[in-house]
Amino acid sequence: MPKTKILTLTEEFKAQDILSLDQFDTPSLIHLFSATLKIKALTQKGKVLDLLKGNIAALIFYEPSSRTFGSFSAAVKRLGGETIEFQNPAQTSSVAKGETLEDTIRTLEAYSDVIIMRHPEKGAAKKAAEAAFFVPIINAGDGIGEHPTQALLDMFTIYEKFGSLDNLTILFAGDLLNGRTVHSLLRGLALFQNITVYLLSPKSLTLSREDKTMFERRGLKLIEIHNSLDMPKNADVWYWTRVQKERFKNLKDYERVKHSFIVTTDLLKERAKKNMIIMHPLPRVGEIENAVDKDPRAIYFTSQIKNGMYLRMALLGLVLGKLK
Ligand code: NCD
Q1: DSSP conformational letter for 228
Q2: Measured distance CA(188)–CA(27) in Å, rounded
Q3: Residue 182 exposure: Cα atoms within 13 Å on the Cβ side
Q4: End-to-end CA distance of the chain
Q5: Alpha-carbon Rg of the chain, whole angstroms?
Q6: pTM over 0.90
């Protein structure tokens, strides 16, 4: 039976494409977080889960990836499922012979129950979802567009730490123009109450003006700053990001801005409160000093990464109809 395409998720995730944080409402997020908490507790107790036994997930990544690829692959296997994996399909698949995205997707859906795709073009995940007749598509990053599963794991991590996503002050730093994780996370945060967001970036890498207006209309209080001296001292979360080198036409422009803002132990002393967390979707390329890793507030190599796998396990269980 062809899949039905519904672009708004309620608490029912079964057979749905996961393309954008725009599809979610607050109850659907809380539902996913509860499922993640359960999966995390069971897995940490050493329980072997077999929710996806007999299922196959196809992973096709047209852009490099360590965490998203690794954690999706691990998530499927930890649930007893199996994977078909294409990394660098432009070299390793019929894409090298000129096959279209649509035809590649039609092929993969013949072998699998869900397709997880990363692609350099904004909008490619939607294109793939329209091409797929039978199986759901999960967007693992579409160019400078969105990266919904990263935002979901980030929100789960904040929720787990503070018990809620309301009444928070969050500082985003880095490449806000091109960073897809930021674009998805802001969409998600707009579903909660009383959120203040500081946006620290070079002037050339601010959110697009359309995005800024859209997020303000959705109720986020946005404060753009361009100097670390203007950073608030009361932020609950620092969400640092890498300047997205691959999105620059001119390498010199990248070199000029790449290290505009760096987290150092001194900056933490001056600007961070005790009960806050430092997050980064990773990879970092110099924008967080290594010495910061030892600070207990730095969670990018600890809970944030682990939660990526648990959240993806829960999401796959829900989308494949194995979890309620
Ligand atoms: C991010 C991405 O690919 O958008 N990485 C990730 O999936 N954790 C962030 C980045 O590459 O800067």
Answers
A1: G
A2: 12
A3: 31
A4: 21
A5: 19
A6: yes
- Please confirm whether the linkage preceding 27 is cis (ω < 30° from 0): no
| Ligand 1 and 212: CB distance under 6 A | no
CA of 2 from ligand 1 middle (Å) equals: 32
Q: Which residue has the tokens 């998530």?
A: 75
140's enclosing H/E stretch is: strand 137-142
For the chain, domain boundaries: 21-147+308-319, 149-304
> Contact 57/116 with Cβ under 8 angstroms?
yes
Q: Which two tokens stand for residue 128?
A: 């793939």
The encoded tokens of residue 127 equal 């294109």
Cα gap 316→279, rounded to integer Å = 24
Instruction: Give the Cβ contact number of residue 322 at 10 Å.
Output: 18
Class of the CATH-defined domain 149-304: alpha beta
Q: What is the pLDDT of residues 88-109, one digit of tens each?
A: 998 888 888 899 999 999 999 9
Q: What is the CATH number of domain 21-147+308-319?
A: 3.40.50.1370
pLDDT over 90 (residue 3):
no
Q: How many A from CA of 179 to the centre of ligand 1?
A: 8
Q: What would the DSSP string read from start to end of 175-202?
A: -TTT-HHHHHHHHHHTTSSS-EEEEE--
Spell out the residues 6+ positions from residue 153 whose beta carbon is closer than 8 angstroms to its own.
Answer: 304, 307, 308, 311, 312
Cα separation, 253 vs 249, in Å, equals 8
Show the tokens assigned to 245: 């080198």
- Reported as a pLDDT band with limits 50, 70 and 90, residue 8 is low
Do 21-147+308-319 and 149-304 have matching folds?
Answer: yes
Collapsing DSSP to helix, strand or coil, 319 comes out as helix
Atom of ligand 1 nearest to the CA of 118: 3
CA of 134 to the centre of ligand 1 (A): 28
Ligand 1 atom at minimal distance to the Cα of residue 308: 8
